[in-house]
Amino acid sequence: MSDTTAETQNQPFTVEQFYKFIKDKKIMAVKCTKCGSTYLPPRPMCTNCLSKELTWFELEKTGKLVTYTVIYIAPVQFKDIAPYAYGIVELRKGLRLPGIIKGIDLEKLEIGMDLTVDFDTETSETWPNWPKYYFRPP
User: Cβ–Cβ contacts within 10 Å for residue 54, how many?
Assistant: First the structure.
């Protein structure tokens, strides 16, 4: 997938902008046009070659579960969903994204299983009030 519109490319390379893309149901990462390094979450400068010549690109919404943990004692904001799984999924180009895993019995989670990014339409009055994504089985 790719998103190279001028409007997208003129956006700042910040975590705040990453979450604005989440609101549009897009998982966007950053690529250095000098050396090809890729970053998720985004950053305003390539840490490999120090270039500021960056571009946004859209990631596919599927990947493999690399690791996970089950949270039984949750922060106040997440008590209503505990116990829940929180994992890291490896997407395209080896980029990894952490997030909550929904839609599967905790006992059925397996390292290496395929998961898909989905988006939560609920908004919260408390932290975190940014648009949310989560992982689920395809």
Answer: 20
Q: pTM, whole model, 2 decimals?
A: 0.85
- Establish how many alpha carbons lie within 13 A of residue 70's alpha carbon, considering only the half-sphere containing its beta carbon: 10
Q: Bridge-partner residues for 12, per DSSP?
A: none
Nearest-angstrom CA–CA distance, 83 and 127: 19
Residues 115/69, Cβ–Cβ less than 8 Å: no
Residue 35, amino acid: C
Give CA separation, 78 vs 57, 75, 85, in Å.
31, 6, 11
- The full set of domain ranges for the chain reads 6-58, 62-136
pLDDT digits (tens, 9 = 90+) for 28-58: 999 999 999 999 999 999 999 999 999 999 9
Contacts of 50 (CB under 8 A, 6+ apart): none
Residue 120 has pLDDT above 90, yes or no: no
**128, pLDDT greater than 60:** no
Give the phi and the psi of residue 67 in degrees, each rounded to 5: -160, 160
Query: How far is Cα 87 from Cα 89, in angstroms, rounded to an integer?
Result: 6
